[in-house]
Amino acid sequence: LYFLLGFSLGCCFLLALYLTARSEHFRQINQTESVAKEKTVLLDLLHSLFDCIARGLPEEQIYQRVVSGCRLATHGLSACFFKYKEDTQELIATTREGLFPLLKTYLSPTLSKAEMLSVVKQGERFFVGESYVGKCAQDLRPRILEADELEVMVANPKLKMHVKQLFLCPILFQKELLGVIAIVNCIQPGGF
Q1: Most CB contacts within 10 A, which of 35, 75, 108, 113?
Q2: Do the beta carbons of residue 80 and residue 96 sit within 8 Å?
Q3: Residue 111: which region, alpha, beta or left (left: phi > 0; alpha: psi -120 to 50)?
């Protein structure tokens, strides 16, 4: 009887070790695949940007490719580029991908869906230091804000928009601010 009990406990212990090692092995495989995907997305983004610059494409198309690449790299739902205007110290939403929510304007539930979409597509303006986007431009460092940290919650059942997470990152070139990229509901903000 003691032999069977010891044998059973030994088998359970070995099974637990096996399952632990197996899950660690699969985690490492997934991590390796994730790194490979991130490298592919980054190389595609760099190739796309190089192609834009080589062709002499307008600034707007370059920003569009930056937004697309950042959204893909972080697996975000939507993204927006806020271009920095040095003369007015403003950040203006110029390029969007997906239905990027408003961060400071409250949408009234009495608006029709078409009116709401019109307001959302116009974008917003922020002064440096104002709201999350302006603070990111002022500090020149990235931020990840969870839903409970956001003061303005843009949740509207008609548009089915709900901000769970907001990732903000300043875009700099030789220590000069070009703008701020904002990505909503990203799965892997570290991938950017």
Answers
A1: 75
A2: yes
A3: beta
